[in-house]
Amino acid sequence: MRYIIAAILLSTLLSCAVLKPEKPRESYLVGDALEYDANGDSVTERGVVFLKRTHSKDMSIITEKGIELSGTPGVEPYQYEARLTRLPQSEVYEIVEKSGDFKGQVTFTDKANNIWVGEIQYKDGRRMNYTGQGQGQRETKERKTFSKTNELNTVGKDKLWLVTAKQYQALWQEVSAANTKQTHYYVGESVAKDARSKQVIHKARTFVKRVHLPNEDQILESVHVVDLARGMTNDYSAVIQCRTRSRVCDVKNSEGKGFGTITYLDKTRKKWSYQLKVPSAISGRGWLSEAGLKAERKINMPTGKRSILVYDDLQEVGEMEYQFGLIPVSAIKE
What we know:
Layout: H1 2-17, E1 26-36, E2 43-55, E3 61-70, E4 78-86, E5 92-97, E6 102-108, E7 115-122, E8 127-133, E9 138-142, E10 147-155, H2 160-178, E11 182-194, E12 200-213, E13 218-227, E14 233-242, E15 248-252, E16 258-264, E17 271-277, E18 281-288, E19 292-300, E20 307-317, H3 319-325
């Protein structure tokens, strides 16, 4: 989300450029920061942005302080302070962020200063191209995989915090409604094969319960496996805790001891890879489909002489079907 707010400094250049000398040298803007998918069809991330801009009398120097409050659970507010300096006899401004997070340039392309283009480079090497128009209220930045749009409105200093608080509260009400505790149940077959011969070693009935706690960015997972040939059962539980502003999650047991990581491969968190050690080394991938949950993994036995491939094909079911399946056959009376 930090890439969204940096775009705000470009969108406000226009509004400051058209201010008359008698206007105050400070102005405040509040609005939404929206990230869209590659097709531009749906919003994948949202935030509320507000900033303070101060300019010199001749508009040669502009300073901006901004903060973004993210609608994504677990993401801390992002703050920045940037200085924009106009080059001599030019409509080009050089941009430098105080902490060194980004730098770049922006250029007005019309006499009325209503259209502008720019580029910013972040310290991690990423570059963003910008286009904008209007009174500093709308700007879009694009990459191949997504686009981001900032829509801002100028407000008075006395209303800045009130407007921001109301927008943020509305955003969180919407986010919280979609991020309440969710529980999913999966039941299906797991097949284990020898990695070399591909012969089936055994089959099992697998039951998975996943409790999503979006506000904590956490998943509580319980697994119950029944060996269909020997009738043996195996149970384990795990806590999947995602790191802040990352797609990497730490996997821990119920006692809090870590034994691996899961890395989400897409923003929707429907595809992932994992590296575990319990104590055998396990590597694999998993994904959610319309029908349920599928996974493939390779288990390297501690002796190092044998590897096993395991394939899970689980269907999403209701709680009643899940609970009924857990009942041992011997406990069901005619």
